[in-house]
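Box 3.1 A note on notation
Throughout this textbook, protein chains are presented in two layers. The first layer is the amino acid sequence; the second is a token string describing backbone geometry. Keep the layers aligned when reading.
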Amino acid sequence: MGIGSSPHATELHPDAPRYLLVMTATIVPAANSGVKRADPHIRLDDYKRAFRFWLNYSHPSAERILFLENSGADLSELRAIAATENLLSKPVEIISVPGNTIPAGTNYGYTEMLMLDQGLALSELRRATTHMIKATGRLTFPTLGKALDRIRGPLDLMVDCRKLSFPRSGFDASVQLFVCSHLFYDRVLRDSRAEMNSTDVRLLEHLIYRKVIPFKGQPGIYLRFPCNIDPVGYSGFKGRRYNSPKTALTRRVRAVLRQVAPKYWF
């Protein structure tokens, strides 16, 4: 479903990325998803709150919005918001795709990538854009525009890779938010869910890290955000707000390290 046009779109350089903000959503979680914030009514309220935020976010990163949902839930309230509260007249698509069954040995990430593969193939807005911003649909990221404005030159991928803290070891990639060109997605990430398994690549964070780390150091590849892009909202798995005192301390440390030791992943 497409809604709206954008007669007052920001004037951009012809070579500037044309972004499609993709909000991924599962209003009714699968029984084996393991999320604590599982009440469909609460989750729908989260999605509506985030949807309103992005509709009013004036940066070009959210100039076009694709809302994808994979549990077959009623999306009429979201469509009503798009039709009546879209003061910036942004082009919006709201698409429902099947596929909320999590295969044994994987986690929600499998269905997340399936939703992206299916939804992007159906999107008309994708054909009018060059880059996608994948955002967990219940959350907002107020400093997204600030981070993108710091990128100079080509942009094929921007994702936050991190070193895991005790008792975990190794590295992974944050998948609440990442940016990539459509060409990069089609070449590297499309159909990658088939590589998920019950041992070394069970989590989506592990899968994305494994797929993108070979490109480290190449032009247009950013494996660390240039500044903190902190989520606003509730954790699906823990059910807690992201602005807890412990999280706030971690954010401050990361913000400092991005400036004084940008090559150190934390």
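Residues 40-55 form the longest helix (16 residues). Residues 16-260 form a domain with the Spore Coat Polysaccharide Biosynthesis Protein SpsA; Chain A fold (CATH 3.90.550).
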